[in-house]
Amino acid sequence: MSDMRIMMTADAVGGVWQYSIDLARGLSRLGIETVLATMGPAMTARQRAEAAEIPELRLIETGLVLDWMARDASAVREASSAIEQIAKECEADIIQLSTPALAAQSRFHAPVVAVQHSCVATWWDAVHGSELPADFQWRAELVRQGLAAASIVITPTAAFGHMTQRRYDLPTVPRTIHNGRTPLALTPRAAHDFVFTAGRLWDDGKNLRTIDAAAARIGVPIHAAGSVLTPQGAEVKFDHIHCLGLLDEDQLGQWLAARPVFVSAALYEPFGLAVLEAAAAGCALILSDIPTFRELWEDVAIFIPARNHNAFAHAMAELVGDDCERARMGRAARERAARFTPDAMAAQMASIYRSLLPAASGPRLTSRVAA
């Protein structure tokens, strides 16, 4: 029987789901039970099946609104109250929140680990660099309150931790625990000459316009995986990128197995799971020169100023045409990617959980083990 139970919030929209499922998988190997409460849009059948395969994982689909999709602050507070009740009912020893906003005005019965995966305020700072619009200001205020209320704050990179500290004027930098990722299943195949990228293609923070402009200047195709539909339902179109739509893990693995040159011109990236997936597959990396990517991929990637489409075009054309350098960089990227595993992430998170347990209900833990 598990001696610790974590209640973790997540969503099924993007990288937070993959982070959560990989963390739960790593925690299960440590004998730690996870209650995963999903929020936002419904999960897919594949996601439910993925969760069902993990020992020590219980899934609760809440349908509660995500903070960044909420109509107002009261909707976030309602969602937070519901999560608070779920945490009590499942007798969680630790509550891990996928956004600090959920801790803003709730009084959880157990220590709160707030994982700052991203937020609209730091996104706006990186993409626009101007004053926050009114609709972002109240969201940022909830995050600020939640950061102050949490027992500990985690960010996936030190670079994003410093960004968070500056934006919210925190007295200390959040604790860094790098994300881990289970490598995609790959069917061996010959390398192919194309460029690949993946992510939320509609997101201005991913800066696909720069890649689209670069695509017009090179003679090899650029394929992009991910949604082109904004949360409001509008479709983003590109002139030169071949958009593949949303791919499942098997489909993504098939594309990456060809070891294309992987490119990201992101302006904002708290971590970048898509880059890690590509690196683990042995893809050579061309990345925007932002602090996050420098922290993770220094010495194994080519770095380009984020908005310089001419420099991206030149780097992509040169690397696609140089088989030896492309293979060397792919091997280096794979070796670096091997550092970022679910087990390493889970071990560090488990250490944090245990450091917080003196503030939790010790007798209940003892009685659970005895039972």
How would you describe this structure to a colleague?
The chain is α/β, with parallel strands linked by helices. The chain folds into two domains: 5-181 and 341-370, Glycogen Phosphorylase B (Rossmann fold), CATH 3.40.50; 195-337, Rossmann fold, CATH 3.40.50.2000. It contains 14 helices and 13 strands. The protein has helices at 15-28, 45-52, 73-89, 120-127, 134-149, 158-168, 208-215, 249-256, 273-280, 291-297, 309-320, 323-337, 342-356, 362-370, and strands spanning 5-11, 33-39, 57-61, 94-97, 112-115, 152-155, 175-176, 195-198, 222-225, 242-245, 261-264, 285-288, 301-304. The strands form two sheets. It has a seven-stranded parallel sheet with strand order 3-2-1-4-5-6-7, with helices on both faces. A six-stranded parallel sheet has the order 10-9-8-11-12-13, sandwiched between helices. Helix 9 (273-280) links the parallel strand 11 and strand 12. Helix 1 (15-28) packs across helix 13 (342-356) and helix 7 (208-215) packs across helix 11 (309-320). The longest helix has 17 residues, at 73-89. The radius of gyration is 21 Å and the shape is globular. The termini are close together. The model is unreliable at 359-371 (pLDDT under 50).
